[in-house]
Amino acid sequence: MxxxxxxxxxxxxxxxxxxxxxxEKLSIAKxxxxxxxxxxxxxxxxxxxxxxxxxxxxxSLGFKNRMMTWNRAKISDLESxxxxxxxxxxxxxxxxxxxxxxxxxxxKTKMFKELEKTILMAKREGLYICIGGEDSSRGSLEFxxxxxxxxxxxxADRFRYCDTVGIMTPMQTYExxxxxxxxxxxxIEMHTHNDxxxxxxxxxxxxDAGAISVNTTVIGLGERAGNASFEQISMAxxxxxxxxxxxxxxxxxxxxxxxxxxxGIDVSLSAPIxxxxxxxxxxxxxxxxxxxxxxxxxxxxxxxVGCSRKFPIGKHxxxxxxxxxxxxxxxxxxxxxxxxxxxxxxxIVTSRKRVLNKQELLTLYKENLCL
Length: 371
Fold this sequence. Notes:
- The chain is α/β, with parallel strands linked by helices.
- It has 2 domains: 3-263, Aldolase class I (TIM Barrel), CATH 3.20.20.70; 284-370, no CATH class.
- Helix content is 46%, strand content 12%.
- An 8-stranded parallel beta barrel has the order 1-2-3-4-5-6-7-8, surrounded by 7 helices.
- Helix 6 (108-124) runs parallel beside helix 7.
């Protein structure tokens, strides 16, 4: 079963204009646990005392799930993580030539020495070690092989393949992950970005090819266009991949709102999984189908993610929707008596750009009876 390592509390908070306070971090972590996350990446200790204090607070929650910190592959960063008491670390190094040049002046030997020293120290402390391959997608597979070979020799536990600037396609991702998995060196974790809207697809392609883990953030929050979405990946693994993932229905939507509020952003009304309008059916054909069979035009039930189904009275509504709402108002009607209402409803909705409420429908219905 694929693991979800959620990094809302690290990469999510790195989104521009976003900063979580301690209370928000604790609430997000609790929500993630309730929604079935497997692992959490909870911060960057090298940022300083305040970040370290938050990490200690998160660890004090006592969750059995693995909680990991993000570090550069530097002794000083690792020491900051050890000070917090974590048992798992991501040790990040650049993979592409462009970032090796930026961070190590192009000196790969120096970079490998730093990585080796840091891994060995982490191993002495008994830590779980993930090597974070920053900008893997702009590096060569041969160089990634070198990094993974060294990591295995030194006792690292996992390699994080990072599509840092979101340039991969699902087919490219599948082919590259299949090759890296076939090396049988380190298990692969997918870290995908959404610059071209492909973060979820690339993450799942990596899983298809044999990767064991995927990084996510709630509502896809993160640098630039964000990361693979926790709620979307979770539900895809459950419904499309058949994984037995546990999720509290109320908590999924509540978690999304918590993160959105903490980040100061709005969730799209049509956002997959948790959007306010994705279980609303206005089209007459769709509404009629849903009234007869709840799975006619939905891949899963609204209640599963703490939402509710709605049948708005709009431009595309049919007589079935009108009958439905009138019945809710205690009025029994026949379809053939309602056809003349539809043109009036369409005219009103189109002119004012807003659906009718039940009271407005009732008024129109009574007027129609008098015609």
